[in-house]
TrEMBL record:
High-level lineage: Bacteria, Bacillati, Actinomycetota, Actinomycetes, Micrococcales
Domain Beta-lactamase class A catalytic, first and last residues per copy: 52-273
Coiled-coil ranges (or none): none
Domain of life: Bacteria
Biased composition (Basic and acidic residues): 1-14
GO MF term (any one): beta-lactamase activity
Pfam families per UniProt: Beta-lactamase2
Protein name (database record): Beta-lactamase class A
Organism: Diaminobutyricimonas aerilata
């Protein structure tokens, strides 16, 4: 065998290895646009991660550095919802308490409770507020009641090794605080939504309750912006498209995980991007890339 033949064979093996790590399978070329969009962000210096899999077969449709751990902002609140739902299923009295807000729970940004006159809500109502508007005040009150250690233990029980809620929500983070609200891998987040949709998180009742809460989510600004749904009312199928998702937003962080079903197929997905949020252009390019992935998903499920 000549050196030129060996060189060509070695180059071909390396090309296949690179494709296997960072490309969708060949029969799923309709995800090429999303893959290219993430590649452009990575070329600009962003850290990108994505995982998309067929909900019914488990087949991986696209995977881009899906095991790396990136900040996921509010997506980690899902683990709090799972813990609360599991307690409700077990008829734990703590899951039906009425909780008051206190001064130490106060925090700004997302959510509506901080703008309301009500000083207390039941635990299930707080869960609904968190799912609908990623309510930070509701998160802190509920997390104080449930305990961060219980949420961490629940995540470990589910086998999540790279995904965790690290802290309560803070207006600013000091050197003694966790650097992020939550972190996660898209591999685990896509699995989590797939497991919720297949009634495999704790049990069927717990899974269904979490999905019902998350169906209230009003943030369709990222991947889900491609689906054409009403942000304020999409609990049922609209044009035969059914979505449940959770997003995470922070400075230099955009992340989304969810499950979408169409007339032909269903898919669980997760996308995370950490980028230099220096100007509006950079942010808009991230959002456009995530929307491109949503367009690929829409094409796949329909």
């Amino acid at each position: 065998m000549t050196d030129s033949v060996r060189t060509r064979e070695r180059s071909e093996r390396m090309r296949r290895l690179r494709q296997a790590r960072h490309r969708a399978p060949a029969e799923r070329e309709n995800f090429g646009r999303g893959f290219a969009a993430l590649g452009d962000l990575a070329y600009e210096g962003a850290q990108v991660s994505a995982k998309i899999m067929d909900l019914d077969t488990g087949r991986v449709l696209m995977a881009v550095d899906d095991r790396i751990v990136l900040p996921t902002a509010s997506i980690g609140k899902i683990l709090l919802l799972v813990e609360v739902s599991a307690r409700m299923t077990a008829r734990d009295p703590s899951a039906f308490a009425v909780l008051d807000k206190t001064a130490r729970d106060s925090v700004g940004d997302s959510g509506v409770w901080q703008h309301l006159q009500a000083t207390s809500f039941s635990v299930p109502d707080l869960a609904a507020l968190i799912a609908a508007t990623s309510d930070n005040l509701a998160t802190n009150v509920l997390l104080r009641h449930v305990g961060l250690e219980a949420v961490r233990a629940r995540g470990e029980e589910m086998g999540l090794m790279r995904t965790a809620l690290l802290d309560l929500v803070r207006d600013s983070r000091g050197p003694d605080d966790a650097p992020q609200l939550s972190v996660g891998s898209t591999a685990e987040l896509a699995w989590l939504f797939g497991a919720l949709a297949n009634n495999q998180v704790v049990d069927s009742l717990t899974s269904a309750r979490v999905l019902a809460w998350l169906s209230l989510n009003t943030d369709l600004s990222m991947v889900a912006s491609a689906f054409g749904l009403d942000p304020l009312a999409h609990r049922g199928a609209d044009h035969r498209t059914l979505l449940v998702n959770k997003t995470g937003t922070d400075t230099g962080v955009r992340a989304e995980a969810g499950v979408v079903r169409g007339r032909r197929a269903a898919a669980a997905y997760a996308v995370s991007v950490q980028f230099s949020d220096d100007d509006i252009g950079a942010r808009l390019r991230v959002l456009e890339a995530m929307r491109t992935i949503g367009m690929d998903l829409l094409e796949y499920v329909h």
